[in-house]
Design brief:
Layout lengths: L16 E5 L7 H12 L3 E4 L14 H13 L3 E6 L6 H4 L5 H6 L4 E3 L4 H10 L4 E2 L11 H12 L5 E2 L5 E4 L5 E10 H6 L12 E8 L3 H13 L8 E8 L15 H14 L2 E4 L12 E2 L3 E5 L4 E4 L6
Parallel strand pairs: 1-2, 1-3, 3-4, 4-5, 8-9, 9-10, 10-11
Antiparallel strand pairs: 5-12, 6-14, 7-11, 8-13, 13-14
Length: 314
């Protein structure tokens, strides 16, 4: 199954059940409870009694997380799966997830950050996912992002031209480029190289975001992607939020400075000959606009704009 054959899953309809899964890090209870309440205003939810489980930096043993996610993939009554939170752990269980079940009964999978690995896995299984806030982030982001997540799960209409304020980044470019939208976490794109779920860069319009990585590490990830062919054939890079990516790192309650990270990204993209835009409201901060992974999109380098040509669901 190649990336270009992945389909948009069926829309969520009134009364359908959405499952919340914890396949990565353990949840933070207060933020999780607030996020569940926001989703419950819009959908019928299903979650395990032990979803608050914890094994160190993981939401339970690998076997439990595998069983939970596979159970939802195989359950015909579950029409979408939303990650409870990100955090490390997904790459450990990718080989045991039931790709055949998702292909046979497509359903949108929602996540971001380390959830990039799960979205890449879903695309290889033939089904597009939705790069969007996880449950524990829902109460922290703009209400419009929560509304957009709910909207994209039920409405197959393409988003069209996004009303984002963007600026040029990377190598000089002109005109419009069209390709497959691939939004995700920079570190995860790098770490997926060499695995069965590495992202196909050919014709891709990458949207990248990151948190807590020093500028030299951002340089390393981008350079690794370039040297390993992970950007070969990419048509543009759209830069989202790079949160607390300073050296030394800034405390969570301090005023952030994305400047050093953006400078590194701009320099690397110029060196690679890749054009792009920066300023996308996507990432770990107070904004995380949902984007359909694998949708056809157009980046207009003259107008500094993005147009989404496919819906997240069908």
């Amino acid at each position: 199954m190649t990336a270009t054959t992945a389909i948009a899953p069926p829309r969520v309809r009134a009364g359908d059940k959405i499952a919340i899964a914890a396949p990565a890090g353990p949840i933070r209870e207060e933020r999780f409870t607030r996020g569940v309440a926001l989703l419950a205003e819009r959908f019928t939810l299903q979650l395990a009694d032990d979803i608050k489980r914890s094994s160190g930096y993981l939401a339970g043993p690998d076997g439990r997380r595998i069983d939970e996610l596979n159970g939802y993939l195989r359950d015909p009554d579950v029409r979408a799966i939303v990650m409870a939170r990100g955090g490390y752990g997904l790459m450990r269980i990718l080989p045991e997830l039931d790709a055949a079940a998702l292909a046979a009964d497509p359903k949108p999978i929602v996540g971001f950050s380390d959830g990039t690995a799960l979205l890449a896995w879903a695309e290889k299984a033939g089904v597009r996912g939705l790069h969007a806030p996880v449950v524990t982030q829902l109460s922290d982001v703009r209400r419009e992002d929560v509304d957009a997540l709910a909207h994209q799960l039920v409405d197959p209409a393409p988003l069209g031209r996004l009303t984002w304020t963007l600026a040029d980044a990377g190598a000089p470019g002109d005109g419009a480029v069209e390709g497959r939208l691939v939004p995700g976490n920079l570190c995860m794109f790098s770490h997926l190289l060499g695995t069965p779920w590495q992202v196909d860069p050919d014709g891709a319009l990458f949207v990248i975001e990151e948190i807590g990585e020093k500028p030299y590490a951002i340089d390393r990830y981008l350079t690794h992607l370039h040297l390993a062919g992970g950007l070969r054939g990419a048509r543009a890079i759209v830069v989202g939020d790079f949160t607390r990516c300073t050296d030394p790192p800034r405390p969570a309650d301090a005023t952030d400075d994305p400047g050093p990270a953006i400078a590194v990204i701009d320099e690397r993209l110029r060196a690679f000959g890749l054009p792009g835009l920066m300023g996308a409201p996507v990432g770990h901060g107070a904004r995380n606009a949902p984007l359909p992974w694998g949708a056809r999109a157009r980046v207009d380098l003259d107008a500094s704009s993005i147009e989404i040509l496919d819906g997240a669901v069908a």
